[in-house]
């Protein structure tokens, strides 16, 4: 027995529609929020390819902030944890995203475990 297409609500976001169709969205909305004395970005919302690794997101953030690799930068998802650099952005938003967006907090000193 199959479910009727009218029994489920229509998806309202790219990630929501991807869950229904089984396809991965092309772009993910990422919100950057500074913590403590970290500089605030002029633009805090970006779209990034869903196939990118978390490491690419960190490198992008460093470039936007003008930080060198030798300068400390701590990056967290949802004010809670720092994922592995090889984790895909799609997996992070699928598991930890809110409203189909990924919130990235960044600091110059360790903030959370």
Automatic annotation (TrEMBL):
GO molecular function per UniProt: Atg8-family ligase activity
Domain of life: Eukaryota
Species of the source: Coemansia erecta
Subunit structure: Forms a conjugate with ATG5.
Name of the protein in question: Ubiquitin-like protein ATG12
Key word Metal-binding present: no
A GO-annotated cellular component: autophagosome membrane
Family indicated by similarity: Belongs to the ATG12 family.
Name of the gene: atg12
